[in-house]
Write a structure and sequence with these properties.
globular; alpha/beta; Rossmann fold; 11 helices
Length: 362
């Protein structure tokens, strides 16, 4: 087989982006979309097909029927986090490869069960972090490792936030504790944690401190609307990130070393254009008599790729990579391992926040 046949389990908005990415990938196609109400699945198919023709027949089915289909090799699961674990495990037991939206689970136990089920069934597990498949990331790695552009990493800071409309608290599942208990920490902080792990070559922090700055809901079941995190690594490297549903769109990252710094303005969703870029600066402070000079020496690096909705965009690359692994019959455990690490950090941060920011060992 040269084409990975996808079933989409759920009709969340993000699934529309991946519908298009599957269509643009040269080794994947959609064969079925599932909903608890097949009519809703058909409406999703019709609306997506108007903009992006699927290139073949797509059936509207129930969750259970999708997992039974012989023309489905892999399942993309954008269901709410609160019910996702059950269906990931069912998909694995049905022999389907799993591309899972993030946060993968409500807690570490769920993610361990998901990854374990996929390993037992010899199917690929991968989370839907698109920036992991951007052409920019290997270039960032190259610069971080060259020894001179940034040098020894000392500090990693990042922010991922967006300003939700007033109706968000009553009409969006991300403010519902039963469906998305991790709120902004899960929806947004998963990306910050993953980028931090990438920068640190997947070395885990030793301790973390988390603070719930603003929550929504009753005591004991508050959904984070704003959250701040501090991570402490062996060797003195520290990292911090901030997530919010209340501040305007930001998705920047700043990596500081003893020789320079690296800055990415849009590490999650690249700004529109044909390049994804970042800047390195090796500033120099020079005193000459009464003159104090701060000299900037910026350098721009860029990967040639479209921001979104194109064959070379990061979401299409994600589908291509996932499909290649699924078709190979040799799942790569790396993707499950880093999902476990990411969830481990979030779990420790939640525990710390419950203790008013006390340090928690990861």
């Amino acid at each position: 087989m040269t084409i990975c046949r996808f079933g989409i389990l759920g009709t969340a908005t993000i699934a529309r982006k991946n519908w298009k990415a599957i269509r643009l990938s040269d080794n994947a196609c959609v064969t079925a979309v599932a909903s608890r109400q097949p009519a809703k699945a058909q409406a999703f198919i019709d609306e997506c097909s108007e903009e992006v023709p699927p290139g073949g027949p797509v059936a509207a089915v129930s969750y259970e029927d999708l997992l039974k289909r012989e023309d489905v090799d892999a399942v993309y699961i954008p269901l709410p986090t609160g019910i996702r674990a059950e269906w990931v495990q069912k998909a694995a037991r049905a022999g389907k490869h799993v591309l899972c939206e993030k946060p993968c689970g409500s807690n570490l136990g769920e993610v361990l069960e998901m990854v374990s089920a996929c390993k037992a069934a010899n199917v690929q597990f991968m989370d839907g972090v698109m920036f992991m498949h951007s052409g920019r990331l290997p270039l960032v790695r190259q610069v971080l490792d060259d020894g001179t552009s940034v040098g020894n990493i000392r500090r990693i800071t990042s922010q991922f936030s967006f300003a939700a409309p007033p109706e968000f608290l009553t009409g969006n599942i991300r403010a519902d504790h039963a469906l998305e208990p991790l709120g902004c920490l899960g929806d947004l902080g998963w990306y910050n944690s993953r980028l931090t792990l990438f920068v640190m070559d997947y070395q885990m922090p030793e301790k973390v401190s988390g603070r719930l700055l603003l929550g929504h809901g009753p005591a004991g079941k508050q959904v984070p609307l704003e959250f701040s995190a501090e991570l402490f690594f062996h060797g003195g490297v520290t990292a911090s990130f901030f997530n919010s549903f209340r501040t305007q769109h930001q998705q920047w990252a700043h990596i500081s070393g003893d020789k320079g710094w690296l800055s990415i303005p849009d590490f999650v969703l690249p700004y529109q254009g044909c390049e994804s870029s970042f800047e390195v600066n090796n500033a120099h402070f020079h005193i000459a008599g009464c003159s104090f000079h701060m000299q900037g020496h910026p350098r721009r690096f860029a990967a040639i790729e479209q921001a979104d909705g194109a064959p070379d965009s990061q979401e299409t690359s994600m589908i291509h990579t996932f499909s290649t692994l699924a078709l190979s019959g040799k799942p790569d455990p790396f993707w499950g391992d880093i999902a476990i690490k990411t969830q481990s950090i979030l779990d420790a941060l939640v525990k710390s926040a419950a203790m008013d920011g006390a340090l928690v060992t990861v």
